Structure prediction request, 197 residues.
Amino acid sequence: MKGKFGWVKNLLILAAVALSLVSCMSAKQLPEDYFYRLPLYQGSSAAKPSLAGMVGVARIETLGLLNERAILYSDQQNPLELRRYRYHHWQEAPASLIQKHLRTYLQQSGAAPGAVLYEPGLVVDQLIRGRLQQFERQLTGSGAKVVVRLELGFAQQAGRVYQAEVACTEMSMSATAEAFGRALAEIYQAFLAELRG
Prediction:
């Protein structure tokens, strides 16, 4: 009886070894996930603050795919089709990234040294609200660019929509993250210029 089922036992051991080898090989072939953050402000400081006192930056509102961490892109051949990269993600959802990025920009540029991340119940002198409408990488025939459309304004007032398009210096995703940072800086500068004007 023992010899009769010995070959079954050997076959099961061989199958288990083969499965473990296949799982080890396939684990090495899986692509790696990459995560990106926005670059910090590198410009000079303003001579005089545009916004005095404690300025709150509220969480940026958004809908749909922009609530996810995957980096979105479109191709000029199919401009209405929005896709997401499988292995390239933002460190956090874009709304949270932009809220923190705007606060840091306001502090480091000197436009609002008292800028803070707003939370309900916090007393601030002014409150900036925003709504993200577009935040994507667009593939063109000659390379890539990023497009950002962001509505900014103060609490109790209608906001204005700002848009910036910035070409990527190369096709890497790191260059794309840098381009997103430059596009957002352009929007912040336009927003602050209107306040001064």
Summary: DSSP finds three helices and eight strands in the chain. The chain has two domains: 1-30, 34-196.
